[in-house]
């Protein structure tokens, strides 16, 4: 297999963590996005759940790996370990759950403590229950202004704006990759065997030692120039 063929087969994989209090719609969001289904029956996430979906963004093949983390304090020590290596983040709250809104900054800090600054958005969920809201829009606007993060107003139940959340995060991550490629145009490629290091053992034999992969990020070695696919029409959404 030639080097060019290997380059064409590389895809961008993005780890996205979805955080927020319990019952704000995190599990429903990734189920809706990855499987196209919605269930109103709430089941507490135990630890971490995981789904993935492959999409095309700006003619680039992208595989989104979505990590649904439990929002309950009893699972906090478990789920924080899964933040490591995250490359994008969704911080969700429900407009009918005042506590979930007030916890937003805490969730933001928890993620940043583990992974630093990564592409992040706020998701104001359950907009289909706007008549029952317990959060004033001015409070939300102030939060967005102070944090300088994009806000998506979603209804997972009615499938409003859910796709746009993850498309935006993928675009932001690809922009960061482009910037890094420009800064380091000759950066080495990372392959499957690069996760292992061969070291001499007393000059007689060699042993395989696995490196810490928590800091390894697979990056595309070449931007693709595929033709654009026809995108599905999306319902109107509100983005601030």
Automatic annotation (TrEMBL):
Pfam families: Ras (PF00071). SMART domains: RAB, RAN, RAS, RHO. Keywords: GTP-binding, Nucleotide-binding. One of its GO terms (molecular function) is GTP binding. SUPFAM superfamilies: P-loop containing nucleoside triphosphate hydrolases. InterPro entries: P-loop_NTPase, Rab, Small_GTP-bd, Small_GTPase. It comes from the Eukaryota. This is Ras-related protein Rab-23.
């Amino acid at each position: 297999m030639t080097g060019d063929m290997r380059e064409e087969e590389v895809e961008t994989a993005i780890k996205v963590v979805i955080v927020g209090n319990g019952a704000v719609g995190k599990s429903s969001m990734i189920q809706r996005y990855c499987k196209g289904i919605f269930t109103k029956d709430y089941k507490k996430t135990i630890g971490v759940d995981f789904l993935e979906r492959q999409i095309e963004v700006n003619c680039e093949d992208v595989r989104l790996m979505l990590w649904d983390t439990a929002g309950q304090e009893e699972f906090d020590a478990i789920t924080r370990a899964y933040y490591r290596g995250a490359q994008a983040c969704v911080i969700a709250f429900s407009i009918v759950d005042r506590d979930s809104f007030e916890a937003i900054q805490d969730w933001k800090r928890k993620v940043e403590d583990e992974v630093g600054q990564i592409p992040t958005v706020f998701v104001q969920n359950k907009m289909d229950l706007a008549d029952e809201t317990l959060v004033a829009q001015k409070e939300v606007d102030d939060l967005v202004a102070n944090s300088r993060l994009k806000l998506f107003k979603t209804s997972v139940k009615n499938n409003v704006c859910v796709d746009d959340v993850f498309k935006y995060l993928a675009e932001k991550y690809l922009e960061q990759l482009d910037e890094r490629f420009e800064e380091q145009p000759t950066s080495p490629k990372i392959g499957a065997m690069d996760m292992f290091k061969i070291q001499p053992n007393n000059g007689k034999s060699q042993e395989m030692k696995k490196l810490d992969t928590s800091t390894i990020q697979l990056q595309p070695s070449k931007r693709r120039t595929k033709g654009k696919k026809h995108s599905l029409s999306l319902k109107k959404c509100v983005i601030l």
